[in-house]
């Protein structure tokens, strides 16, 4: 261990507090910048998942670049030269403040904007983010050579860094976003970055003073040369232990957001657990925590597999969510615990973090760019559950080559039953019971990671197949925007006879349905039924809508197309090409084919597409855009409303579909109606008589002139009422939105 010359003066502030505080602030800045700048880009590129995913890949790549720079700097330069180079880089990065989009930031009107987005991010925040990314490994390396009594194991400072990340993660949606607009967020972040640079320089001065006057590569402690460098096998082990939790994080986030509950901000929960695991495994309690996590994981796995995968229907969604998060916590605690346990000597600290960041980047790339094109559902999530079990300690203990025998026999037996049975539907309960029994057997092989992982893999394979069979899934495909499926169900018609129905799902949220009998095949159903609000609107204006030009944002199964009349001009704006493909395929749905085959299909984000339309060209705009259960926020801002009404004629109507389980979107629209001096009516529709697939739904209709809506308000077709007054809601703009403020 290097023992540099020490100053006789006692420092004004403890080096631990100084370095930990600097790492804490750098991590906070990083986790505030990511959502802030992603949100800043939404009005330019729309609310597509591609925007967020591309931003995340950029952040992970630049984080890896920062770790690579820290590794290069500390291994290729003397201590004093490190300080000089990094100080120059920080001074140069200050010219990028305040962080903002370039003045000429206009995305390409045609083609894929991915490279434009990455270049724009690099110009706007590249240097500051790079400096922040390099802070954690660089300062920990400096601290390891400071000569402090705890310098021999500086890894505990990583807990301070992750604590800052965790605080920023929780404070952004609940504290910063509801109270500070994007303009002020950028200014405050820039001030915080300037403070960080000052703190890094103070750390550098403390490091400089602790070093010998002569600073050359050959002045390092001779004992360092005797420390064996990490082997390739050890570095690959680090990579696996970091890759699996990173992929598991993204897989769980997508799974619970689409297959369990489409709750806004639910993505915060897995990421909070992920950051918490790093805090724990690098803390002083890690040696006592890690054995406990290893022993608890198989016990929780048994319950988790039995209820969350084999038989999830018996659990309320919140309990299922808890089970998934608990299993995730134990899995990453074991992986990250092994990672922390096998950390190298501080001389190789930057290499350790470099491998970790590279593996984390690979995990993000795999889930973002590989899995959506390889799998037709979120299968990367159960795959990584198995991978985490294989990474448990003791893989090669005992006769490991015999461990695959039992899972292999179970797999062959199951495939034999599947291939030899004509109708497995009659045996669903028996198959489910057998799988639960197998889940119980997983605990008996808890001490053999290979056996435990392979047996769990076999159970998951059969469980996923069982659920596909039970849900009568006819078609399933995955795009960049999520998992789309067509399911077949049977209902009782008006005469109590069984009738087949096709239903369209995005994740677990139904986006349309169609009855298949000749008499009902073109009848709009679910949120678009004729007794419902949108049906009432078309019925009330039936006499004058012969030649209307109608735009509909969101296609679904295409039910709205059956309100078409021969003289009307319809245009559907849909962001997901897969939705258009399914809606136009008569194998699944017939609305478009039979009612409006000539309707134009415009692929892309609604705001970007509508900008290209002539002003005052539409008689009716229907906003029916949903991502699972939520309306994208950038379609609900004041600027979005101004865009819609600029495209409507003076007597045009805007119909907004706001049905969802979690957000009171009527408050946002009511505020826009008041501030933009519009007129609006709301109907929260509940069908009075039981009718097949006529469901409760909420719609708002708006117009420039109150008289335009008077006939609808007085209509006997439904109960239309004025939008409620809002006094405590800050207006939603492209600069400010607040999900928490409209939570139901």
TrEMBL record:
Superkingdom per UniProt: Bacteria
GO annotation, biological process: polyamine biosynthetic process
Database matches in SUPFAM superfamilies: MFS general substrate transporter, S-adenosyl-L-methionine-dependent methyltransferases
Keyword Membrane: yes
Entry keyword set: Membrane, Polyamine biosynthesis, Transmembrane, Transmembrane helix
Membrane-traversing stretches: 12-31, 51-73, 85-103, 115-134, 155-175, 187-208, 236-256, 262-282, 294-315, 321-340, 352-375, 381-398, 405-421, 427-445, 452-470
UniProt KW Zinc-finger keyword: no
Stored PANTHER family: THERMOSPERMINE SYNTHASE ACAULIS5
Name of the protein this chain belongs to: Spermidine synthase
Source species of the chain: Methylomonas lenta
Upper lineage: Bacteria, Pseudomonadati, Pseudomonadota, Gammaproteobacteria, Methylococcales
């Amino acid at each position: 261990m290097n023992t540099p010359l020490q100053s006789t003066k006692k420092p004004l502030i403890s080096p631990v507090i100084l370095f930990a505080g600097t790492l804490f602030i750098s991590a906070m800045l990083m986790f505030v910048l990511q959502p802030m700048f992603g949100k800043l880009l939404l009005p330019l590129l729309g609310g597509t998942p591609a925007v967020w995913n591309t931003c995340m890949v950029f952040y992970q790549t630049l984080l890896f670049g920062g770790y690579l720079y820290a590794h290069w700097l500390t291994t290729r330069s003397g201590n004093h030269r490190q300080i000089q180079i990094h100080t120059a880089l920080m001074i140069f990065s200050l010219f990028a403040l305040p962080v903002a989009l370039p003045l000429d930031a206009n995305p390409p009107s045609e083609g894929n904007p991915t490279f434009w987005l990455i270049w724009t991010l690099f110009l706007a925040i590249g240097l500051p983010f790079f400096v922040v990314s390099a802070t954690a490994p660089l300062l920990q390396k400096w601290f390891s050579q400071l000569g402090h009594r705890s310098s021999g194991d500086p890894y505990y400072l990583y807990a301070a860094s992750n604590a800052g990340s965790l605080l920023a993660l929780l404070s952004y949606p609940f504290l910063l976003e509801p109270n500070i607009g994007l303009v002020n967020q950028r200014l405050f972040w820039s001030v915080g970055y300037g403070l960080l640079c000052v703190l890094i320089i103070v750390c550098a001065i403390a490091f400089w003073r602790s070093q010998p006057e002569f600073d050359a590569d050959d002045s390092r402690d001779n004992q360092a040369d005797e420390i064996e460098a990490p082997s390739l096998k050890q570095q690959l082990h680090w990579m696996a232990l970091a890759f699996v939790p990173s992929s598991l994080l993204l897989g769980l986030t997508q799974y619970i957001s689409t297959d369990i509950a489409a709750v806004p901000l639910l993505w915060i929960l897995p990421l909070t657990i992920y950051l918490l695991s790093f805090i724990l495994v690098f803390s002083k309690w890690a040696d006592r925590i890690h054995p406990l996590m290893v022993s608890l994981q198989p016990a929780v796995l048994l319950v988790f597999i039995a209820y969350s995968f084999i038989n999830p229907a018996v659990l309320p969604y919140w309990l299922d969510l808890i089970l998934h998060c608990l299993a995730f916590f134990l899995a990453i605690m074991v992986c990250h615990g092994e990672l922390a346990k096998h950390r190298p000597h501080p001389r190789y600290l930057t290499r350790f973090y470099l491998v970790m960041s590279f593996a984390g980047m690979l995990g993000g790339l795999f889930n973002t760019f590989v899995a959506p094109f390889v799998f037709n559902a979120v299968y990367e999530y159960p795959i990584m559950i198995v991978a985490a079990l294989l990474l448990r300690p003791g893989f090669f203990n005992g006769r490991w080559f015999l461990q695959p025998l039992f899972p292999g026999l179970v797999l062959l037996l199951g495939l034999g039953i599947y291939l030899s049975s004509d109708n497995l539907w009659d045996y669903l309960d028996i198959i489910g019971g057998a799988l639960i029994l197998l889940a119980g057997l997983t605990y008996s092989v808890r001490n053999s990671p290979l056996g435990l992982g392979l047996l769990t893999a076999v159970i998951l394979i059969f469980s996923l197949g069982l659920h596909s069979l039970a849900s009568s899934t006819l078609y399933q495909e995955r795009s960049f925007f999520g998992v789309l499926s067509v399911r077949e169900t049977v209902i009782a018609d008006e005469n109590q006879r069984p009738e087949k129905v096709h239903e369209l799902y995005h994740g677990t949220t139904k986006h349309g349905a169609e009855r298949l009998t000749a008499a009902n095949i073109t009848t709009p159903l679910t949120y678009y039924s004729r007794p419902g609000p949108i049906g009432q609107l078309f019925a009330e204006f039936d006499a004058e809508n012969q030649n209307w030009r109608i735009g509909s944002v969101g296609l679904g199964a295409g039910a709205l197309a059956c309100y078409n009349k021969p003289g009307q001009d319809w245009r559907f704006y849909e962001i997901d090409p897969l939705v258009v493909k399914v809606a136009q395929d008569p194998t699944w749905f017939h609305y478009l084919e039979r009612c409006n085959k000539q309707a134009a299909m415009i692929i892309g984000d609604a705001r970007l597409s509508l900008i290209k339309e002539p002003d005052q060209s539409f008689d009716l705009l229907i906003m029916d855009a949903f991502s699972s259960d939520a309306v994208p926020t950038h379609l609900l801002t004041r600027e979005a409303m101004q865009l819609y009404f600029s495209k409507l004629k003076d007597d045009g109507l805007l119909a907004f579909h706001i049905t969802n389980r979690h957000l009171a979107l009527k408050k946002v629209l009511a505020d826009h109606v008041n501030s933009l001096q519009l007129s609006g009516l709301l109907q929260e529709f509940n069908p009075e008589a039981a009718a097949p697939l006529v469901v409760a739904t909420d719609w708002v209709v708006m117009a420039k002139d109150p008289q335009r809506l008077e006939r609808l308000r007085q209509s006997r077709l439904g109960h239309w009422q004025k939008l409620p007054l809002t006094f405590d809601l800050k207006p939603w703009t492209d600069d400010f939105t607040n999900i928490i403020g409209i939570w139901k």
